[in-house]
Structure formats: C-alpha cells, structure tokens
Amino acid sequence: MLVIAEAGVNHNGNSKIACELIRASAEAGADFVKFQIFKTDRLVTAAATQASYQQRNLGAPEGQGQSAMLRALELEDKAFFELKRECERNGVRFMATPFDIGSAMFQIDELGDDLIKVGSGDFDNLPLLVALGRRGVNVILSSGMSTLGDIEMALGAMAFGYLAGAQEAPSPAAFLDAYGAGEARAVLREKVTLLHCTTEYPAPWESLNLRAIPAMARAFGIDVGYSDHSAGSEAALAAYVLGATMLEKHVTLDRTMPGPDHKASMEPAELAAMIGQIRNLGKALGDGIKCAKPAEIANKAIARKAPVAARAIRAGEMLTEENVTLKRTMGGLPAIRFYDFLGRPSPRDFAADEAIS
C-alpha cells in the first residue's frame, strides 16, 4: 500500500514548517507528501463561509468567511519548487492537490508533475477533470460526498479528456458516451485511482462505510484507495485488508497548532507507528495460498503426532484402535496414516510408546 502523508495546509502558510512536515513524514516512512496549491481569489467568493469543522477547529463564529482563512494558508508559487526539492532530498515523492485549472497547469507545466490529486470538493468540477485528462496525467480522485452515479460521471469526464479529440465539445452526454467506450476501461485503469473518503474532520466511525472500497473496485474495475479522516489507525488498517491500494492521512507537527485541519491529523510518531503497522500487515496478508510456511516447518515434527503402540504389541498381533494410539514422539509415520495399517498383523514386536513403522 502506498502511503500519502497529507501535509495539506498544516504548514499554516509557512514554508519552513512545510519543510519540517516533509522531513517528519519521510522519517515516518511515507511514500508521498502532499500539499494544496490554490489562489484564494480563484477558489472562493466573499460569500463562502467556513465549514462547521473549520469553525469548530478555529473557534470561529458561525458564518465566518473562508477567504481570510485561506489567504493566511496560501503559499506563493515559488515555495512549491523548494518543497519539491526538499522531498527529493528526503527520498519521498512530492504531490499536490490543485484547486483550480490554473493551479493544475502550474503543477503540470512548471513543477513537472505527472500525478495530480483531485480533492473531494472538486469531484464534480468537470472542467478540471477534462483539463487533466487532456493533459494525459495520472489522477488520484477522492470521492467524498459522492454516489456511484456521481463517480461514473466523474470517470466519464476523465475518459472524455483522455480520449476525445481537441475539437470535441464536452458535455454530460459526451462524458457518458466516453465512459461507455471500450477503450475507456483500459485508460482509466492505467491512469486513475479512486479514493473512498468521508468528508468530515474528524470523521465519525459510523460514517466511514469502509465496505464501499471493494464495492467501488468491483463497480469500476480500477484501483481504489482510502483517504482517512478518522482518528487513529484502525480504519486505515481495515481499509488495507479490504483491498485499498493507497492511503492518505493528514499529518501535523502538533495537533494543538492553530488551523482548520490540525485536530484531525496525526503527529509524526503516530504516523510512523501506523505506517509500521501497515508494512507489517502487508507481510502478514501473504499471497492467499494455504501451505506450510518456512517459519513453521521446523515445528511440524514437534507439534504433530505419530502412531505409537498404546501398549506392548507382539509380532503377528492385529493392529487396532485399542493397541495403537497417536502421541507426539520422534520419527514415525504421519498421523494421517493412522487408518492405513489398522486391521493388519503387526510386522514385529513393538514396545509401549514405540513408533509404528
């Protein structure tokens, strides 16, 4: 399972904190560190209010606007070049979520990224999905607040972007036609990973619906991961067992820091512990073929039983369930051979507890 440490805006608008998050995430064992690229004026209007979890985590009054909050969290474009270099220095991959087409094109053309994460808030941003498809990039598509029908439309927009000619006009009908085309399945399987997600911070246990992960994989025939907004690591581990191929988890240097996402994030030590659990679980799941494993073979001779004489047996005496039993011993026939020789004469004398052979 690939692990994305979602630094998001937990840098609080400070690129030095962002670099610390990269180093901490890399040390914890993450495969990617992800940030958010946006321009406040292109993302929200003055009328947009904060989500209830943002108001709760920031202690803001009801109806507080998003604009001032986002402006304080916005990084300049030049900061992302340094963050990408810092990722490279620490052996972890840089990733980002763009919140508008302009930011997406900056990420592709300037930062040189070929893997773009689309957040749940832009799941139905069909112009963005078409634009990404037309650039041919790989996309991780988070599906919070959506239904299977919504996912089909989003994947249709992606398929249209990947497959349609430049002169073809986008439309919902065109997206569904593109999704139904035979070549769409192959390109979506190659280019797109879906993330199951519950868009609440932190997400209540009863809202997680982790069984949607295999259901989505069956419905759409592409890789499905999990963007986890719950507390702790239990849901992430369960998602892995259910077939999630990728995990995204928010990370912060300190949950007590001010900001909208810190309280729903893991601190570095917790992230490291969770990633260690995931790596161990990956080993434990195995290949699904039931067989004796090297670690247990040496114990087979000790733990398994063999047919032995229940009492002294004379040569020629019939072997029966009264004079033959199963016990742990050294050597002898495997217990599965117990019935093979019952009803036959003993080939020789056997002392009590001597293995029958």
Q: What report would you give on this structure?
A:
The protein is α/β, with parallel strands linked by helices and 357 residues long. It has helices at 15-28, 40-43, 52-58, 67-73, 77-89, 101-109, 126-134, 148-163, 172-180, 182-191, 212-220, 234-241, 268-285, 294-303, and strands spanning 2-8, 32-37, 93-98, 115-118, 138-142, 192-197, 224-228, 246-250, 306-309, 324-327. The strands form 2 sheets. Strands 3-2-1-8-7-6-5-4 form an 8-stranded parallel beta sheet. It has a two-stranded antiparallel sheet with strand order 9-10. α1 runs parallel beside α5, α1 (15-28) packs parallel to α13 and α8 crosses α10.
Percentage of residues assigned to helices: 40-55%
Total helical elements:
14
What's the N-to-C terminus distance? 50 Å
Note poorly predicted spans. none
How would a textbook summarize the main sheet? 8 strands, parallel
